[in-house]
Design a protein that fits this description.
The complex is a heterodimer of chains A (368) and B (258). Helices cover 23% and strands 36% of the residues of chain A. With 368 residues, chain A is α+β, with helices and mostly antiparallel strands. Chain B is mostly helical and 258 residues long. Chain B has eleven helices and no strands. In chain B, helix 3 packs parallel to helix 6. Bound molecules: adenosine-5'-diphosphate and magnesium ion.
Amino acid sequence: MIGSDVVIEHVGKSFGAFRALDDVSIGIGKGEFFSLLGPSGCGKTTLLRIIAGFEQPESGAVLLDGVNVLPEPPNTRRVNTVFQNYALFPHLSVFENVAFSLRLAKAPDATVRDRVGHYLRLVELEAHADKKPAQLSGGQKQRVAIARALINEPSVLLLDEPLSALDAKLRQHMLIELDAIHDKIGITFIYVTHDQQEALSVSDRIAVMNGGQVLQVGTPQEIYEAPATDFVAKFIGETNLYEGTIRSVSGQMAELDTAEFGTVYVTDDDPPPAGTRVSWTVRPEKIRIDLERPSSVRGGLNLLSGLVDEPIYSGFQTKFYVRTDQGATLKVIKQHADWSDEGPRIRWKDSVWLSYSAEDAFLVEVKR
Amino acid sequence: MKRSIFSKAVFAGTIVFLFLPLAVLVFYSFNESKSGSWGGFSLRWYLKLFTDSPDLWRAFGNSAIIALGSAAVATAIGTLGAIGVNWYRFRLRSYLRTVTFLPMILPEIIIGVSLLVFFSGLGIRLGLFTVFVAHVSFNLPFVFLLVLARLEEFDFSIIEAARDLGATEAQTLARVILPMIMPGIVSGFLTAVTLSLEDFVITFFVTGPGATTLPLYVYSAIRFGISPVINALSVVMILGTVALTWSMRNFLKYIAAK
Ligand SMILES: Nc1ncnc2c1ncn2[C@@H]1O[C@H](COP(=O)(O)OP(=O)(O)O)[C@@H](O)[C@H]1O
Ligand SMILES: [Mg+2]
């Protein structure tokens, strides 16, 4: 199977007065594992349904390998969907569910047996071929839905929150399996999820959406390390997000005046001029927490002291809410690397030193 | 303890109340004598029922034709209507659903009168045809609602899944929707047959010469005193109903298991 590239050009869609998609443009490469990530109601499913052909946008185009597919009905598009709630045919066995599109094409019995067998093996369900969907567990139903969609040999597979109905452990497992299936067959996957962990762990690239708009498209690292907007910074992972005014700029480093922490050093590819109001962020795991004042303080190193407000211990790490001397709160996450680590020994009300490099603090948005 | 005795008593009372009349009926159908007193066991009335009751069998034939025919037509129209209402979004959709309930709520006598006014207004001669049309019209909502209920149990995305996998609208109908709602269609059809077989009031208004159905025949026969032949007929019909219900139950089980 070969994947297609999918280009979404200026797609707009309204339901009555409600703007579900607002001028959405995304380019997805052949064979990419591409995720649409955003909170519930942001338009992910709507976009997926437009690509599948269940919904017509008012404006824009959807190109598969350069050809606009919007005039085509869903049954002729080389795109298949794994539905959020599986949507298996309850009256057909697992085998016949998977065989559905072959039966439509009037494939000979021998071919049907071969191909269905192949895809049932791929999703490890050979033993359940004769069962009805009602007799399967959630994870098994999900795999039937995947096999049924893949047997058509689509060039693009659309997955709408395929794991949301599974429990956490199974979700992890299925995610790894999905990734393995993607590697094996190499077609384009467009994966819809509201779970940033899921998106970060399997995607080649991610489009973060909110309110019907695409806010940022990038690799998981780009999205996490260099969020384009406040929303992306807050939505992906945990973060500390504050505002400040640029006092001076030297190269890629900027010095900010902030109400909460006094002077803060941050980096940006191209910092705006002095006097600009901006938002800035630093991820909790990038902040060092020490009981003693760190001995070496380099230039551009942000150093603060404060009191531990609330330590949340979870075995491999502890999350601290630290109230700084200026009265603001910073989230800090400390991994417990080895036994000598002092993380577990930092307690509530301890006074601590926080430090982070200017290279780990970023400008996010220019405010007005 | 007391409660359980009480509830057992209620249960027994209900059973007696429900089935004693039937038992009496069965009892008298085997009675040699024509009067209320026991004259010895005999199959005389059964013999008369099967060999010497031409009017009764003509009425039975009319009822059978009307019941099966009107149920079939009502099932076809009702099923397609339910699928249409479920599948397509259009103006007046919810209005249509509400209006369909009306014939189920309206007293039969009003339906009967209005159909009579309707037919005579159009100058249609009363007879088997008008009875047939009347039965189709009062059966329709039952089929419609039974099938619609079945359709609404399923996620609409199943239909989209079929389309997604390459099925045309017609293929989706034949391979997914119809098999899935078959139990609803079957029970709709059976309900329609039953309602049609036993209908008296509406039929009474719209019937004409030569279109006597079984309930009408029984009613007119009983006006001249209860004939034991009717008892025998009732027993035959009870057995028939039990057999039909039993085979339908098995059929539905078979569909569900397939
Ligand atoms: N058929 C529809 N009619 C009206 N509103 C709709 C319809 N489909 C989706 N919406 C609205 O569009 C918005 C986006 O929906 P959706 O694409 O399903 O979001 P997501 O999948 O990101 O949770 C939601 O506010 C939803 O209520
Ligand atoms: Mg959704």
